Design the sequence.
């Protein structure tokens, strides 16, 4: 069964359906969009049930000739990592639609366009994780910038146009570097047995280490901009600040994962040697991101920017886990990608509700929410605790795995990164204290608590955060075989832990 | 002395002959048909001629001949593909040209004179633009199939002279239009002189004016290389002038801005196809064996052209000037296809020319729609908020801009990818890197226009978007469909080109 094409076609069909609904019937537009995302989620779960988790090869493979002159195929297939990320994307989509039921109203354009953009974006989010043809991946990677650009620029707030342009220029620049690398790969494949973009065939190309290093950089810089790694992160706080909460969730939760996903899928697979060469440098950048993101998060007065900077810190952890080259680090990074999607979603959505109720995103304007709006305050608290990786919540497992996996090979990096956890406690607890506790700030007395729709939207996220905190095995069982496989393919074996007793 | 009558293969020449016949009929129509019926008659004659010619091109698509006109023209796959591209671009351009509102009622009258006013009041609109277009097209069709220098030069003049006139036909801002025409004519005449000068040297080098003869000398390497180098350099100047490559680009922003917008679109698209078609033939066949003499210099020109076009476009405040600089940058990208000098480069160039030409005509068609009481509004500041007032037009224009920027799922991306990969394959890595860099720069100003249209609030200054006439609408829809279809599923056209495009010599 062609699961992946079906998954990509469903949101697209939904966007056509939304387009056909008359503009005035706002309710029907939203309902159509919501039901579409629910169907996509259901289909993804059905697909996940059929996934053979012990099989490390790609599954649900589809391959059709697309542009034969260049050897380009429409080729799809997923491994455990891609499955987990698609699952995350398709669960987040209905949540975002439901949570942001009214966020499309302040936009420059109609509500209809908003949902069409969201659904088109969902198709691309699935495609970008499922593509196994490098050209197809690149096409989706670049094309998905356009809906995001219009979502930020058209429906955000504040300096939305400038933020959208900054986002687009950064991403396009990275994408073009990647294009240069892809052209080089394509030409080399032509010289070594026929033009192709097949990931597997390209990974077996012979190339000098200089070439490999250069091409690696082309891919890596593109992904490091996406995932924002210090010093290429500056577009993110602006974008997150201007976008609607729902867009921010998709941007940070899903799109930025394409960066870290790409590092694994493309950088490590295509250029194993170059990956090893650059590991020391990348680990340093990752550690800087962790600490820098955390310190800047502490200094933020704006709630949305704060969440954006915490994400930079978290992406540092993910990148560190990937390049630690141990199976624990890899599993941790993969799990982290999934968990970060949900904890950031929770923070952005609850934060978004707080901001829209209060009409301000400055943290100091809140205060005493715990008394006035207890449910909302609790949700924010849990989301925050998940973000700082409190044991018992999902992020703890992944952060722990990343640190353990890194420590066995790079103890110094791991130790410095651990400070990130301490700083995380600060950047979460300070806003929790200022916004939720303490005396009620004037102007907050009449804020309303979460309504039923909002409760329904946030419930599954909180449930996942707590459930995976106690019982992460369902996901780890899917990720682990792939992790061991990838690390072994790179020619690494996990270091044997040295015993403390002599 | 025995005179042998030249043998002409009329079937193979029919596309051009039909065009010339149609143009002559057009001249007669201009003289004899009453003013009420003139415009519609001209339009029907022109379109009929173009379509008939396209049908003929389709019929001869698998023919190959070196002797169609006593060795002066060559018919082969690239010839047919380029001719078909020119005709398709011409047809959609004529739809926009048909909106006579763009052209002066009486080109021969002085701007602001009584004579002009009288012509406008009496509704005595002259329509000489149609036969001129047909003459220009027949020159363009001949240019890429010429196989000796004399024919090449005749074709060059045949396509240029009508264009000089057409650039001066604008109804509004007639002085600027006439200035553009004069500038184009003078600089064009200079470049023709250079071209002719180069021809003389090539004749001196090889004692032949035919491509085959020059090629033989180049392959044999027996002649005086200095003559070859000078000849190549001057002929290249003539060609680079026509495509608007730096440093021979100075005419294009002024001419693009001054000429009536439908003509600008036609010129930008069709002239590029013709000139690059001829360039490809000359460099791929005649000069191919001397590639070490010309690739370094041409690479340098390509790199400078791409970067210059993209950088200067950022500073433009006028949409037509911006598109002019963008077309300079695209000329740089197309030069990468010439430098590639391999089969992939030829295929890619033909695809790129067609895709770019169609998108260009579409983009200029949209420019004709944005107007105020005094005519077209080309000041970008007054395009603010266009997305709010006419979302469809703005979205379509944004689509063309994304195609120019080479964003995936548009024809521009496939074109860019194929041309850069061909250039990379032939080892022109520096050109590819410059190309990628300038694409990043170019993306910036295309996006700026999108920001202006969609994310900036409009100013109430009387700028409005005309409802497109049915014909203009056809052009816009056709261009949009082609631009996206070639971005999403280019396989049929690409394999069609790959199968046909082989130069015979």
Sequence:
């Amino acid at each position: 069964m062609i699961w992946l094409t079906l998954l990509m076609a469903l949101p697209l069909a939904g966007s056509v359906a939304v387009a056909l609904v008359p503009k005035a019937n706002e309710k029907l537009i939203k309902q159509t969009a919501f039901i579409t995302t629910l169907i996509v989620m259901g289909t993804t779960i059905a697909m996940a049930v059929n996934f053979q988790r012990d099989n490390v090869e790609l599954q649900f493979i589809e391959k059709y000739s697309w542009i034969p002159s260049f050897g380009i195929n429409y080729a799809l297939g997923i491994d455990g990592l891609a499955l987990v990320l698609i699952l995350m994307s398709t669960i987040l989509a209905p949540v975002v639609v439901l949570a942001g039921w009214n966020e499309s109203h302040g936009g420059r354009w109609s509500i209809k366009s908003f949902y069409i953009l969201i659904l088109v974006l969902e198709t691309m989010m699935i495609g970008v994780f499922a593509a196994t043809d490098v050209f197809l991946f690149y096409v989706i990677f670049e094309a998905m910038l356009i809906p995001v650009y219009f979502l930020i620029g058209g429906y955000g707030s504040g300096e939305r146009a400038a933020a959208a342009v900054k986002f687009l220029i950064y991403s396009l620049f990275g994408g073009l570097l990647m294009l240069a690398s892809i052209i080089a790969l394509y030409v080399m494949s032509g010289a070594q047995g026929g033009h192709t973009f097949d990931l597997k065939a390209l990974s077996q190309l012979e190339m000098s280490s200089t070439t490999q290093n250069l091409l690696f950089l082309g891919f890596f810089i593109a992904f490091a901009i996406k995932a924002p790694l210090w010093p290429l992160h500056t577009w993110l706080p602006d974008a997150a600040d201007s976008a609607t909460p729902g867009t921010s969730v998709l941007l940070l939760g899903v799109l930025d994962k394409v960066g870290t996903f790409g590092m694994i899928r493309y950088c490590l697979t295509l250029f194993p040697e170059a990956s090893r060469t650059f590991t020391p440098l990348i680990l340093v950048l990752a550690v800087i991101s962790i600490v820098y993101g955390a310190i800047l998060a502490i200094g933020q007065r704006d709630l949305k920017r704060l969440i954006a900077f915490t994400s930079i810190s978290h992406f540092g952890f993910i990148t560190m886990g990937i390049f630690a080259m141990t199976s624990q680090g890899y599993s941790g990074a993969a799990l982290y990608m999934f968990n970060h999607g949900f904890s950031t979603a929770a923070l952005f959505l609850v934060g978004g509700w707080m901001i829209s109720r209060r009409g301000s995103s400055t943290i100091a304007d809140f205060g005493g929410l715990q008394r006035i709006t207890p449910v909302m305050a609790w949700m924010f608290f849990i989301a925050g605790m998940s973000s700082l990786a409190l044991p018992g919540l999902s992020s703890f497992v992944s952060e722990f795995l990343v640190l353990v996996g890194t420590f066995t090979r790079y103890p110094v990096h791991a130790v410095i990164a651990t400070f990130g956890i301490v700083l995380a406690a600060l950047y979460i607890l300070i806003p929790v204290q200022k916004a939720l506790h303490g005396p009620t700030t004037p102007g907050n007395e009449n804020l309303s608590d979460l309504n039923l729709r909002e409760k329904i939207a946030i419930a599954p996220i909180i449930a996942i955060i707590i459930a995976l905190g106690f019982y992460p095995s369902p996901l780890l069982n899917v990720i682990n075989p792939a992790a061991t496989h990838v690390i072994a393919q790179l020619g690494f074996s996990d270091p044997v832990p040295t015993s403390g007793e002599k | 002395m025995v005179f042998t009558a030249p043998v002409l293969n009329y079937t193979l020449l029919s596309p051009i002959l039909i065009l010339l016949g149609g143009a002559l009929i057009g001249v007669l129509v201009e003289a004899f048909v009453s003013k009420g019926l003139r415009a519609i008659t001209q339009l029907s004659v022109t379109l009929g001629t173009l379509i008939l010619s396209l049908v003929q091109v389709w019929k001869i698509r698998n023919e190959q001949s070196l002797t169609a006109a006593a060795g002066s023209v060559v018919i082969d796959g690239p010839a047919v593909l380029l001719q078909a591209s020119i005709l398709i671009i011409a047809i959609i351009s004529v739809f926009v040209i048909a909106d006579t509102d763009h052209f002066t009622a009486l080109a021969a009258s002085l701007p602001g004179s009584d004579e002009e006013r009288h012509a406008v009041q009496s509704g005595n609109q002259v329509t000489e633009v149609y036969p001129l277009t047909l003459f220009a097209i027949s020159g363009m069709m001949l240019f890429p199939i010429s196989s000796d220098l004399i024919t090449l030069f005749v074709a060059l003049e045949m396509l240029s002279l009508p264009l000089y006139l057409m650039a001066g036909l604008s109804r509004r801002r007639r002085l600027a239009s006439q200035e553009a025409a004069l500038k184009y004519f003078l600089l064009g005449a200079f470049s023709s002189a250079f071209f002719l000068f180069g021809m003389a040297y090539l004749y001196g080098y090889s004692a032949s004016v035919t491509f085959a003869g020059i090629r033989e000398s180049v392959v044999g390497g027996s002649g005086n290389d200095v003559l070859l180098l000078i000849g190549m350099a001057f002929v290249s100047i003539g060609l680079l002038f026509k495509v608007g490559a730096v440093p021979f680009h100075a005419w294009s922003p002024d001419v693009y801005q001054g000429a009536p917008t439908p003509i600008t679109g036609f010129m930008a698209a069709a002239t590029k196809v013709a000139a690059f078609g001829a360039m490809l033939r000359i460099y791929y066949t005649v000069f191919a064996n001397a590639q070490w003499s010309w690739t370094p210099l041409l690479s340098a020109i390509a790199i400078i052209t791409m970067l210059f076009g993209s950088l200067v476009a950022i500073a433009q405040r006028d949409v037509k000037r911006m598109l002019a600089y963008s077309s300079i940058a695209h000329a740089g990208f197309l030069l990468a296809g010439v430098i590639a000098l391999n089969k992939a480069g030829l295929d890619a160039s033909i695809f790129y020319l067609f895709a770019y030409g169609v998108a260009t005509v579409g983009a200029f068609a949209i420019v004709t729609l944005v107007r105020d009481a005094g005519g077209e509004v080309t000041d970008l500041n007054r395009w603010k908020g266009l997305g709010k007032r006419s979302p469809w037009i703005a979205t379509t224009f944004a689509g063309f801009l994304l195609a120019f920027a080479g964003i995936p799922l548009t024809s521009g991306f496939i074109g860019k990818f194929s041309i850069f990969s061909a250039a990379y394959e032939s080892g022109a890595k520096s050109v590819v890197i410059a190309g990628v860099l300038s694409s990043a720069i170019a993306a910036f100003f295309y996006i700026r226009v999108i920001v202006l249209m969609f994310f900036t609030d409009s100013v109430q200054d009387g700028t409005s978007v005309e409802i497109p006439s049915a014909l203009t609408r056809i052009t816009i829809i056709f261009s949009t469909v082609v631009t996206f279809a070639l971005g999403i599923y280019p396989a049929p056209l690409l394999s069609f080109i790959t199968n046909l495009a082989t130069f015979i010599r």
